[in-house]
Design goal:
40% helix, homodimer, Rossmann fold, 8-stranded mixed sheet, alpha/beta, disordered N terminus
Chain lengths: 362, 362
């Protein structure tokens, strides 16, 4: 399954030229961040599928997780497309790259008005700022409200933030494998990844764009990600104690196990498509996020989670559902039993598909 | 509880001068490793408590985990001492530092016969080699068999290896929070730590002893260790989303959360007492280890595990117990319910104490 996931996640990288052609760009103007920092000009990269109806009422916003991008039919093509749960023959689907990202939207690697990469000067952003930029894009598209805002993990945080920050602009939120706020352990995993980057001598305080940058640290950070996104069972199923291209141990200090090779391969591949400063910026935004109530929200909620997801455990989705119930809103939480850990939210089209289809038809 | 653990684990470091005075050293001669490498001379550092009786039948060998050392009354003083489950008024307790370690026994930082640190020339060692060195120490001490061999995590692997490799020298084995072989996920966590070190530009292929060495990579590797040794509950209990010495977020790129400060503090502290090459050598030995049966063993077994230990899950101890049962041996497996993750085996004196006391009196 991890191989399927990789295909889904990384095909975008392998056909980057094509994807760039599909990307659209919207200048959403100057922004002052929630934490106070400023950007004189913000561009949001996005892609759309399907057609906006005459009532402009069939818009669906897809919010991506840490390493995702605007190409939602790609990393989430089990959920989105013609005949899928989020059916592009019925809905006008919009995927964006988040503010602070590195796949077309303004982020730390972007050039300022002087033509210099922001690097260390890029402001601290929060989930609320990502949503603000998306809201301006929504206005640009002539949409007043979304039929659905959906996302998993960091994308789920954006979705629930939309419900609270722009209650009149959201009819339904589907939030999968996410949390109202990161726990200490989740912050810890993010921080270990950040420290791998910050402690790389090539990081240079974040102003590394004239050089190769902290690719070793970023690679280690990505290995950590893979360790936390999978489960004991999925690691066992995919790798077990299989050796790497050898019938026996070499005992020469080289990589021995297939799982070791996999981690380094994924880590190194990640450095070719992702910027270390974006990793730091986005993981900090995730850690800062803390939704305390749905006192402003008006939408219907669907929360899904997976019993094998130990890094975003189900009780966090149950707590979100309870917040929605406490606010008097229609809400449901469904825990799905599948063995692949946090990656389930990307890999599972079948269960999530049925549940989301029902949610959209209610 | 983590604070108590730190006290237990690191007091040794803080009173290093005293501890070195308590250490004894045994030259166990030249060794050829199971994988073929050689060392012309091996020293094993050890400490003892209690008195060997006239029958030489009350010896207890304590085997340490990855970051431990010979100072078992220190990191395991909840279990060992006068009146404790492993009662030093009855037993002659021996703690050793493993072959390949960095607390007195021959390891990669040791000097060869030319006076140069082994570094990259240190051979690949396995758990079986650690046991072989301990067996020579046993002979040096005039002991023919151990009343008990005990250890947790990597120490548990040594204990079960003793049972199989020297069946006549072991009467009882207590193996806690351990496994017959590392799973792919466990290998993955070790490998991410190794890669953090190997990818540090200061690693220099392992021959870094004339310089500061890969302290940044080793620090990140230790952060990973702490993430896997604790549990969601223990992180939540100790840190939650508490901020670090501030009433509010600073939004200045510095550390914000207490858990972040904790991880960097523990990581950096570790680099002052541990050698990066030992980290690589010992984690590889752990990953190589695979006990397939107890066909040679003759001893009684006690396996304990903890329901919150997600990195060494209970089913691995249950499988070890089954191997002992399959070999027709007396064996029991007891799962203990405590919330502190893998660290439980160090923190829990109460439950493990009662169980081990009973095991020793049987």
């Amino acid at each position: 399954m991890a191989e399927q996931l990789d295909d889904a996640l990384f095909q975008e990288n392998e056909r980057l030229g094509v994807v760039i052609d599909e990307r659209l760009y919207c200048n959403v103007g100057a922004m002052t961040m929630k934490a106070g920092g400023q950007l004189d000009e913000v561009t949001i990269a996005y892609e759309t599928w399907g057609t906006l109806n005459a009532e402009r009422s069939n818009g669906v916003l897809i919010c991506h997780a840490l390493s995702g991008d605007s190409h939602a039919i790609g990393w989430w093509d089990r959920m989105i497309g013609p005949g899928k749960a989020i059916d592009t023959t019925n809905y006008f689907v919009v995927g964006t790259n988040v503010l602070g990202g590195c796949q077309g939207s303004t982020g730390p690697a972007s050039l300022d008005s002087e033509g210099q990469p922001y690097g260390s000067r890029f402001p601290v952003i929060q989930i609320e700022d990502m949503v603000e930029a998306q809201q301006r894009l929504m206005q640009h598209l002539g949409i007043n409200h979304w039929h659905l805002v959906a996302g998993g993990s960091m994308g789920g945080m954006q979705a629930i933030c939309w419900a609270e920050q722009h209650p009149d602009a959201v009819q339904r939120v589907w939030c999968t494998a996410s949390a109202a706020a990161h726990s200490a352990m989740q912050i810890g995993f993010n921080e270990a990844g950040r420290q791998a980057i910050l402690r790389d001598s090539e990081y240079r305080g974040g102003d590394y764009y004239a050089t190769q940058g902290p690719v070793q640290g970023l690679s280690v950070a990505r290995m950590l990600g893979h360790l936390s996104f999978l489960s004991e069972a999925s690691f066992a199923q995919k790798f077990g104690r299989n050796l790497q291209s050898k019938g026996q141990f070499s005992f020469d200090g080289s990589i021995e196990f297939a799982v070791e090779s996999y981690l380094s391969y994924q880590g190194d591949k990640f450095t070719k498509r992702f910027d270390a400063n974006s990793f730091i910026t986005l993981t900090r935004a995730i850690d800062y996020f803390e939704l305390k109530s749905f006192e402003n929200a008006k939408c219907d909620f669907l929360f899904t989670s997976f019993d094998s997801d130990w890094i975003y455990p189900s009780h966090q989705s149950a707590a979100l559902h309870q917040l929605a119930v406490d606010a008097g809103l229609n809400s449901q939480h469904i825990e799905i039993s599948l063995p692949w850990g946090h990656d389930c939210f990307l890999l599972d089209g079948e269960n999530q598909g049925k549940i989301v289809k029902q949610f959209l038809s209610d």
